[in-house]
Amino acid sequence: MSTAATPVYLSQSSQQCSLLQQFIERQSLEFAGDCQPSAEQARLIIMSPEFQLDQLSKAWAAISELSLSEIAIDKLADRAWQLPLSAALSAPQLAVLEALKPRLLALDIEINYLADGVAPFLSSSGALACFDMDSTLIQVEVIDELAKAAGVGEQVAAVTEAAMRGELDFRESFIQRMSTLKGLDEAVLADIAANIPLSPGMPELIRGLKDLGFKTAIFSGGFDYFAGQLQQRFGFDQIFANRLDIVDGKVTGQAKGDIVDAERKAQLLEQLANEYDLPMSSTIAVGDGANDLLMLAKAGMGVAYRAKPIVRDQAQFSISQLGLDAVLYLLGQKEG
Length: 336
What we know:
This protein is an alpha/beta fold. It is 40% helix and 23% strand. It has 15 helices and 13 strands. Strand 12 (301-305), helix 14 and strand 13 form a beta-alpha-beta unit. Helix 7 (153-164) runs antiparallel to helix 8. The radius of gyration is 22 Å and the shape is elongated.
């Protein structure tokens, strides 16, 4: 079937989008009627910081390689559209999709596929979203900020980066980095906490998830002092993070209790799902580093957010260009 013969169904919001109208005219596509996606429907989500006509034309040529019998387009926002599918993608189509992802990313377009639609996350029984903290909910690695204050910033940052790329064992590297903080004044924590930059779209995402009935949690290989600050500000239901050992107002260079590593994060995800009586299919996990891979693989929707290549390549879903609130687009939520 030629591209020109492909019928295109548009939602009401899409029919009012001038860019889409220009695209349909340029591609000589056939408008076939209204699109009204159901929650159970398989779909593709495409996102870009700014859709442009020439970019869309190149993307269309790539997406056409999926040999879809028809196309439906539902505009979620200026930055995100969903393409509800008449049937789930076949194994050969999934292989084509994986090959398309880097080509589309080169066009500043990211594509994600939901085989079971968004229904598992929008049930009346609720859902669960769990987040890494450092470089996910916030834009920095807190241990690196503490290390800067201790005068060992470059040394620790290099180890952190290697650990997040999966080149070092997280637990061993964490103990090594912690030891460099010995003697740091406790007062530094408050100064750092007051200046930590949030990730773009983080407050909007947490507010949106709570409106949808989600429980939210932080699983951090960082520190509970900073996770607790986020909990107070944004209402996370639970937090799990490492606890700094402080004696006489000074950091001892050790952490109290079990270290929150990759295995612990995956265990906590399953633990909270059981606590809230939710199937794993109704869980979301979001992270950026190698120590997040296990929880991303276990979750119903594992999202690599502005992640290291090893994580982006292995995660089922990824957000590389937009802010954290783009998770709401993966759930089919419309802006405004």
